[in-house]
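Practice record 12: protein with 4'-deoxy-4'-aminopyridoxal-5'-phosphate.
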Amino acid sequence: MCATNEEWFTRAERLFPGGVNSPARAYAAVGGTPPVFVRGEGAYVYDVEGKRYIDYLAAYGPLILGHAHPAIVSAISRAAAEGTVLGTTTTYEVEFAERLQSAIPSLERLRFTTSGTEGVMSAIRVARAFTGRTTIVKFSGCYHGHADPVLGDAGSGTATVGLSHVAGVPAETLRDVWSLPYNDPETLRTTMRKRGERVAAVLVEPVVGNFGIVPPEPEFLRTIHEEAARAGALVIYDEVITAFRFAYGAVQSLLGYTPDLTVLGKIIGGGVPIGAFGGRRDVLELLAPLGPTFQAGTFAGNPLAMRAGLALLDVLAKENPYGELERKAIRLAEGLTAAARRYRLPFTVNRFGGAFSTHFVDGPVRTYADARRADDRLFSRFFHGLRERGILIAPSKYEAWFTMVPHTWDDVEATLRAAEDVFAELARIA
Ligand code: PMP
């Protein structure tokens, strides 16, 4: 019988390239063999050897109520009993979309997809159709899923496995996508003034979650909106990570700007695969059957995701956990920063609401270039030190920690005690 993590991972390696179904899960950047997991409950996940971890990975963002929240389990069970996919319009799609629309008023029209990748891909297509232009402006280190046009100079998984160019993506595709530095209004302004008439859309993570957590500087965000408007280009917010992470609704409501299009995913599905894109009615109504552009999906809007999403919104609306999520993140961020300082380690925490990232570099971390400078060896030892002590974060210096509703204050303090130990170890090798 197969019992250990090691044995299970060896079996996985005989099936999946690198043993994983998504490369971010591999330990490419940190070395070693990943544990293999069997279950999650609340704030904890358990590997096949029965070891428990306090989970800050949150499955790379979809989880906010933790694992197997009773309200979501019950919604999914009821949905399963009544048909997981009907291939028709259902009442649940309508109800869920209405709820999203009232939380995110810029969604005059929307479509559900089954992943964030598809949401971005479709938003780009409809933006190109609307403007009759092909160029997309994006920002270095932002990750927008794994569709061809957005894989140039992307952060997150591609950065973690060290790919600046992705083989198989045609050079012609990338020629139409200009990747500019984040938080650099000057470069953006110059580019848009020179060649803005070619730009269909400026695509941005309004708060970055894919080279750490990096909020936009006010002038940068203002420049995006001003220059896009001036050039007749659309603004697309990729809120796959940010929507419902920081507030009930999208982060656009906190930042004070309204994009033309918004892409959603992760949290909104209550832990079930989902994506969505929406925004201006005149743009979305270019989609078939109303218009000449096409987008589709067999599982788009399936009742499992819709009903899990509805249950999630009910809980979030009722409990409004955002203040508490932020307080836990503040305590973690401050505790980690203070401990790193005691051991004189180069260390910067970036935080926005209940999400933060840990960078082994003297700050500030405002751009992808800053995040890349962080020390790989220190991060790797930090990651493994935490893992050995039962704390789970992503095996990448570019990914975030997420607080979740079921994290207790004891979990937070236990995490800080573990980190203190690990920093002491790091100080010996730094
Ligand atoms: N956009 C952003 C900002 C993301 O972080 C991700 C996933 N990490 C995606 C798009 C792609 O979503 P999915 O993995 O569901 O395709």
